[in-house]
Design a protein that fits this description.
This protein is mainly alpha-helical. The chain contains six helices and two strands. It has a two-stranded antiparallel ribbon with strand order 1-2.
């Protein structure tokens, strides 16, 4: 007797997109979409606010990147698109298109894309390394043993 099995290509679990090929491209695209949605919402509601208020709003709403520390298997082009998304959201929320992204980042005192991603990954690593949870500690020890051998 023949039995067919059903499999899914992608699945959303706790806000993360999991794919059957173990790639994080879908999750990065989800985060890009969320950043554009949040930025457009901020533009509609707070376009006339001062730069200081805009900075606080953008930092609170758009820089809370959920799960960046978990991204490990992705296409370089997907991460490059996310970088452009970050720059585009900053550009359209704070200034018009005539300014360079470097001058905009310096003017509004926002971190560069590479600094932002590094800080997210570092915070994730520190949360794992300082956790007192037994399961997390065991997984961390197995991972550390794999790296040392």
């Amino acid at each position: 007797m023949w039995h067919s099995t059903l499999s899914t290509i992608k699945f959303c679990y706790l806000g993360h997109i999991l794919k059957n090929n173990s790639r994080d491209d879908g999750d990065i695209q989800r985060e890009m979409c969320n950043m554009f949605i949040r930025t457009n919402m901020l533009i509609r509601r707070f376009s006339r606010c001062s730069a200081k208020v805009k900075l606080g709003l953008f930092t609170s709403y758009c820089l809370c990147l959920y799960g960046v520390g978990l991204w490990s298997n992705y296409a370089a082009s997907t991460l490059l698109k996310f970088k452009y998304c970050y720059h585009k959201c900053i550009e359209i929320f704070f200034f018009d298109k005539s300014h360079s992204i470097t001058s905009v980042l310096l003017d509004v005192k926002l971190p560069s894309y590479n600094t932002l991603i590094h800080n997210c990954r570092y915070r994730h690593h520190m949360q794992l390394s300082t956790s007192i949870n037994v399961v997390v500690s065991n997984i961390r020890q197995v991972y550390d043993n794999l790296l040392c051998s």
